[in-house]
Amino acid sequence: MIDAALLDWYDRHARVLPWRTGPAARKRGERPDPYRVWLSEVMLQQTTVATVTPRYARFLELFPTVEALAAAPVEDVLAEWAGLGYYARARNLHKCAQVVAGEHGGVFPQTEEGLLALPGIGAYTAAAIAAIAFDEPAVVMDGNIERVMARLFAVETPLPDAKPVLRDHAASLTPDKRPGDYAQALMDLGATICTPRNPACALCPLREKCIAQKNAIQADLPRKKKKAAKPTRFGTAFHITRKGDGAVLLVRRPDKGLLGGMLAFPATEWGERADAEPPIKAAWLKADEPVRHTFTHFHLEMDVWMVTVSDAAARKAQKALQGEWHPDPAMAGLPTVFRKVLDVTNRDK
């Protein structure tokens, strides 16, 4: 049986992760904390374990319970999320915490259906929480599990078209016994053995059942459609320093849209290259190098303009841009692209 072989392997080789209740602890009767499972799953979306691990610990120090997260100002949550990317996750995390704390008495629903009704929880996250936190036999599908299924059943249809077939295969294997450990075992198998490149098939507990391995095509799977080239967008960021005390002007980006609700330097819209229109008249200096950053769907190239203004001009700039002055913008929780702007200005001073 695939589940028996996989669980036996997991009992011996499970990764030790700060958000995980491992197999030995489970046998002692310890149960996962749904809040921590939820938080880790949201953090791990499109972000590596190595990046998330220290940030997870710090996040728990600041927001140790779902009630603490719900009570925190959303600006504090966004600032703490800075650098993790996909900032809509942070806004939805806060909304979800408020619903769980306010409408569910701080208790997460135990079913996929109930979890899906919460803000920001999609099919994957609902299945993962249901399985890992509540031992519901939910079908959990992340990139690691898709890869394992593609090889195990030698599915040659390219992704993303293969997703329904891969899910059907995963559903056919999901056990009623220890489904949470089983889901995490598949994740660990994909992360450590059935890796994208050079899978360690000799160490795999499922190698005797793997059709791709028998056909020697495991390294070719899963197949993927060729992605279209990402377009490049352009813009300009404005670094305004107040002469009197050296504070820097930051603005709050609109709640909706990319980097919504985050503090940032004033900037133009990102689109086709055009002459920048400075937000105030001043003796601007242009940085020697633009900032380059890649988002999910496009590359960004942004010029950086810098100026130091008098206190009187600073008041006009603050009013015109509806911004706020920060003595140390490095501590303001800037998203990565605007931290790059800060780096450029520090080099060009």
From TrEMBL:
Q: Which cofactor does it need?
A: [4Fe-4S] cluster
Q: InterPro entries annotated for this entry?
A: A/G_AdeGlyc_MutY, DNA_glycosylase, Endonuclease-III-like_CS2, Endonuclease3_FeS-loop_motif, Endouclease-III_FeS-bd_BS, HhH-GPD_domain, HhH_base_excis_C, HhH_motif
The catalytic activity of this protein is classed by the Enzyme Commission as: 3.2.2.31
Domain HhH-GPD, first and last residues per copy: 43-192
Xref: SUPFAM superfamilies: DNA-glycosylase, Nudix
What does the record say about how the cofactor binds? Binds 1 [4Fe-4S] cluster.
Per UniProt, the keywords (alphabetical) are: 4Fe-4S, DNA damage, DNA repair, Glycosidase, Hydrolase, Iron, Iron-sulfur, Metal-binding
**Gene3D superfamilies assigned to the protein according to its UniProt record, in alphabetical order:** Helix-hairpin-Helix base-excision DNA repair enzymes (C-terminal), Hypothetical protein, domain 2, Nucleoside Triphosphate Pyrophosphohydrolase
Tell me the GO BP annotations in alphabetical order: base-excision repair; mismatch repair
Looking at the Swiss-Prot or TrEMBL record, what is one Pfam family this protein matches?
HHH
Q: Which residues form a coiled coil?
A: none
- What is this enzyme's catalytic activity, as reactions? Hydrolyzes free adenine bases from 7,8-dihydro-8-oxoguanine:adenine mismatched double-stranded DNA, leaving an apurinic site
Give GO MF terms, alphabetically. 4 iron, 4 sulfur cluster binding; 8-oxo-7,8-dihydroguanine DNA N-glycosylase activity; adenine/guanine mispair binding; metal ion binding; oxidized purine DNA binding; purine-specific mismatch base pair DNA N-glycosylase activity
UniProt lists the family membership as follows: Belongs to the Nth/MutY family.
Its biological function? Adenine glycosylase active on G-A mispairs. MutY also corrects error-prone DNA synthesis past GO lesions which are due to the oxidatively damaged form of guanine: 7,8-dihydro-8-oxoguanine (8-oxo-dGTP).
Name of the protein described by the UniProt record:
Adenine DNA glycosylase
What is the organism lineage in this UniProt record? Answer: Bacteria, Pseudomonadati, Pseudomonadota, Alphaproteobacteria, Parvularculales
